[in-house]
Write a structure and sequence with these properties.
The chain is an alpha/beta fold and 324 residues long. It has one domain: Alpha-Beta Barrel (TIM Barrel), CATH 3.20.20.70. It is built from 12 helices and 8 strands. The chain has an 8-stranded mixed β-sheet. The protein is globular.
């Protein structure tokens, strides 16, 4: 796989400073039941990196001590980690808002037969990857049979109340472009998703998040192989809007890897751009002092333009829509 980090570090990006921490995004491991073309993690069934019980304990201790509002759990397929359900249940007992970055097909993995019911019982916000409402596009990006399994997963979540008014169970979908292009306007695309998924499959959901593809890991390597890396970075840079800088996720969030080390975001984690102290030592969650990161400068590079191009892109979707 081609390494895009040396190329990205040569590209300057406007300086950013952190605000008060409100969201802890925890990557519990890179193992997944899928191997998607656009995956910025490079996750697959063959990855073995996995958060231990001791690190999960550090996450829960930090949530309790710092009173963090939101726990955002990601992977890989985070549900495959043996400590996933304990993290969810314990965080919800603290009244922490919990989000699960779900690929939907994991609901049919052996041993996960009761996963949907578990998520509903703990009122977990499901953020589900659904890169298109057309079967051919989804299968080109994520593999054969994934679309049908995803539809079944959404229907199962709907049957439990997810995405329905008054249920208290939030279901959001995530769109990624097929290739090196910017996402279309989020609101218009969301309307198309509602129409097609509703009319053809009876599916309802709360919101659609549009995310730009990050030029790192599997997707970045593919761009280099096809000779499209420079063109995509040029597209991102020319579409950059300073107005998006105030809403990027790295200002209020920290990313925790499977070992417990900290990063400004999940993308920096995949590029191995860790948060460090002045002596160069990596910062572990268990050793982070209250407010230690407030006001600190964010580590930036060329990939950050994927978050500020056009309507903007973050784990919560388009930045311009989020700010309205």
């Amino acid at each position: 796989m081609h390494d895009t980090k040396p190329l990205l570090e040569q590209i300057p990006f406007p300086p950013l400073r952190r605000r008060r921490l409100t969201t802890l995004q925890v990557n519990v491991g890179y193992r997944c039941n899928q191997s998607c073309m656009h995956c910025h993690v490079g996750a697959s069934p063959h990855r073995t990196e996995e958060m231990s019980g001791a690190v999960a304990d550090s996450v829960l201790a930090f949530l309790a001590r710092e009173r963090i509002a939101t726990l955002d759990i990601t992977g890989g397929a985070p549900e495959l980690n043996p400590h996933f359900r304990r993290l969810v249940a314990s965080a919800r007992d603290m009244a922490v808002r919990v989000m699960d970055r779900c690929n939907l097909t994991v609901l049919e993995v052996p041993g996960q037969e009761d996963l949907a019911e578990f998520l509903a019982a703990h009122e977990v916000i499901v953020v589900a990857s659904m890169p298109c409402y057309l079967e051919s596009n989804v299968e080109q990006q994520r593999g054969k049979g994934v679309f049908a399994a995803s539809i079944r997963g959404l229907q199962r979540l709907n049957a439990l109340g997810y995405g329905r008014d008054g249920s208290g169970l939030e279901l959001n979908l995530v769109y990624n472009p097929q290739g090196p292009s910017l996402p279309p306007p989020q609101q218009a695309l969301e309307a198309d998703y509602r129409r097609v998924l509703g009319e053809q499959y009876g599916i309802v959901f709360n919101r659609l998040f549009t995310l730009a593809n990050m030029p790192i890991q599997r997707f970045g390597s593919m761009l280099i192989s096809k000779g499209e890396f420079a063109r995509y970075l040029d597209l991102l840079q020319h579409a950059h809007l300073d107005a998006n800088l105030g809403s990027v996720m790295c200002r209020d969030l920290i990313s925790v890897d499977w070992r417990g080390y900290l990063y400004d975001c999940d993308f920096n984690q995949m590029l191995d751009l860790p948060l460090t102290r002045r002596n160069g030592a990596r910062i572990h969650l268990s050793a982070l002092a209250a407010g230690e990161l407030d006001g600190r400068q964010v580590r930036v590079a060329g990939h950050c333009f994927a978050c500020t191009a056009g309507q903007g892109s973050s784990c919560g979707g388009a930045l311009q829509n989020a700010a309205e």
